[in-house]
Design brief:
Blueprint: E1 11-17, E2 22-32, E3 38-42, E4 45-49, E5 55-59
Antiparallel strand pairs: 1-2, 1-5, 2-3, 3-4
Length: 64
């Protein structure tokens, strides 16, 4: 997926490579790194960086 506007609180579905597996997961974005990549809580990490090539879908959060 190409980089796009994403905000903290949005949900992303991604397929990430870790040491133990290669699974699809859906997580809420908790931060953005200095390169614009989303960060999520995943597999024991507080700020797991997801590369844009791993992102499959973005679901915008409801904002008031």
């Amino acid at each position: 997926m190409r980089p796009r506007k994403i905000a903290i609180g949005d949900s992303i579905t991604f397929k990430a490579v870790t040491r133990s597996h290669y699974k699809i997961a859906t997580r809420k974005v908790v931060g953005i790194d200095c390169f614009g990549n989303p960060q999520v809580r995943y597999h024991g990490w507080d700020k797991f960086v997801v590369q844009w090539r791993e992102v499959k879908a973005v679901v915008k959060a409801v904002r008031k």
